[in-house]
Amino acid sequence: MPTSLPPQTEGDVLSDAQAMVLALEQAQCAAQMGEVPVGAVLLGADGRLLSVGANRTVCDHDPTQHAEIVALRAATRKVGNYRLPGASLFVTLEPCMMCLGALLHARLSRVVWAAADPKTGVCGSVESLHLHPTLNHHTRVSGGLMAEDAAQALRDFFRERREQKKLQKQAESVPSDQSPLDGAP
Ligand SMILES: [Zn+2]
């Protein structure tokens, strides 16, 4: 399951790059489930892995199940506290309004994202809510770490999905009462 911790990293203090690599792995888990590939990793104040999350909005029928929220819920339940001071979240896509709000409520120390999201990103793309002085006293937000890897995963996913839809349309355009073998000698 994407919410279980990768065993090789349990107990280690992770660098930013190592954390983002794990987040990218979570994004791949999401893609394998047919979800838009976004992954997140939460490190505790000690720099050790606390939780991971993969986007699962479609399979859970739940628009709040973005990777950041999945990781955040797993971490707060594990710690037994709705606030995670000192913790850092790494996510492969710029957070949306909902996720940034939740991350600020949790009082994380840092949020680091990879690829920009020109459609719903509120950490510089659509809005810059992370800089709002009355919203954010606690959390440093920065973007662009391994942006190209994360963006490539998204491009691959959407290209494959377009190709699948095209094939599906072609299959549907063959009248159902007509076998492809009709007219064959
Ligand atoms: Zn979100």
Automatic annotation (TrEMBL):
<comment type="similarity">
    <text>Belongs to the cytidine and deoxycytidylate deaminase family. ADAT2 subfamily.</text>
</comment>
<protein>
    <recommendedName>
        <fullName>tRNA-specific adenosine deaminase</fullName>
        <ecNumber>3.5.4.33</ecNumber>
    </recommendedName>
</protein>
<feature type="binding site">
    <location>
        <position position="66"/>
    </location>
    <ligand>
        <name>Zn(2+)</name>
    </ligand>
</feature>
<feature type="region of interest" description="Disordered">
    <location>
        <begin position="162"/>
        <end position="185"/>
    </location>
</feature>
<dbReference type="GO" id="GO:0052717">
    <property type="term" value="F:tRNA-specific adenosine-34 deaminase activity"/>
</dbReference>
<dbReference type="GO" id="GO:0008270">
    <property type="term" value="F:zinc ion binding"/>
</dbReference>
<dbReference type="InterPro" id="IPR058535">
    <property type="entry name" value="MafB19-deam"/>
</dbReference>
<keyword id="KW-0819">tRNA processing</keyword>
<feature type="binding site">
    <location>
        <position position="99"/>
    </location>
    <ligand>
        <name>Zn(2+)</name>
    </ligand>
</feature>
<dbReference type="InterPro" id="IPR016192">
    <property type="entry name" value="APOBEC/CMP_deaminase_Zn-bd"/>
</dbReference>
<comment type="function">
    <text>Catalyzes the deamination of adenosine to inosine at the wobble position 34 of tRNA(Arg2).</text>
</comment>
<dbReference type="InterPro" id="IPR028883">
    <property type="entry name" value="tRNA_aden_deaminase"/>
</dbReference>
<dbReference type="InterPro" id="IPR002125">
    <property type="entry name" value="CMP_dCMP_dom"/>
</dbReference>
<feature type="active site" description="Proton donor">
    <location>
        <position position="68"/>
    </location>
</feature>
<dbReference type="Pfam" id="PF14437">
    <property type="entry name" value="MafB19-deam"/>
</dbReference>
<feature type="binding site">
    <location>
        <position position="96"/>
    </location>
    <ligand>
        <name>Zn(2+)</name>
    </ligand>
</feature>
<dbReference type="InterPro" id="IPR016193">
    <property type="entry name" value="Cytidine_deaminase-like"/>
</dbReference>
<keyword id="KW-0479">Metal-binding</keyword>
<comment type="subunit">
    <text>Homodimer.</text>
</comment>
<keyword id="KW-0862">Zinc</keyword>
<dbReference type="GO" id="GO:0002100">
    <property type="term" value="P:tRNA wobble adenosine to inosine editing"/>
</dbReference>
<feature type="compositionally biased region" description="Polar residues">
    <location>
        <begin position="170"/>
        <end position="179"/>
    </location>
</feature>
<feature type="domain" description="CMP/dCMP-type deaminase">
    <location>
        <begin position="14"/>
        <end position="142"/>
    </location>
</feature>
<keyword id="KW-0378">Hydrolase</keyword>
